[in-house]
Structures are given as C-alpha cells and as structure tokens.
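In the current project phase, we have settled on a layout for protein records. A sample record is reproduced below.
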Amino acid sequence: MSFNCPGSQRFKQPQPEIINCPFCADEIELWTDEAEAVCSTCKRNVTRESGNCCLDWCAYARGCVGEAAYDRYVQNKRKGVQYRERKEKENR
C-alpha cells in the first residue's frame, strides 16, 4: 500500500484559486503552486501570503513532490516572506 500525502496535492496537481487584488479588489486567478501574479486591472504584483505547509518540516518533502516543485515552493516561500516584511515596514 502506498501513502499519498494530502498536503502535497496542491503542488503535484495545482488548482486555480480566485483571490481579490489588495490594490483594486478585482479578482485574480492564482494557482496553488504560485506565489504571485499580476493583476490584469491595475497591473500591480499581487503576492500570496503563505502559511506553513508540510513541505516546511517533512523530511520526505523533496521526494514527495519532486525536485522542481519543491524548489519552486522554497522560492515562492521566500517571495512571501519578503512581501510580508515589506508590508510590515510600510505599516510602521
């Protein structure tokens, strides 16, 4: 019997999600394996604020989702942290 981690599905089989642009409130399609998109209305970059995920702590994460998906996750996570830090500086 093989085990299929439910936390890895959004990376193995990405799905589109609709989020609202924080600048103009228009709807933006952002896939579950992406960190950012450009709003078609206001042309600004919109970054997903990511929470913790099994890829952050699981020893099998890289092998579970594959090298490319894991590397993309780490890169996107970094973008999310940078976005959050910029946002915090703006609010000071």
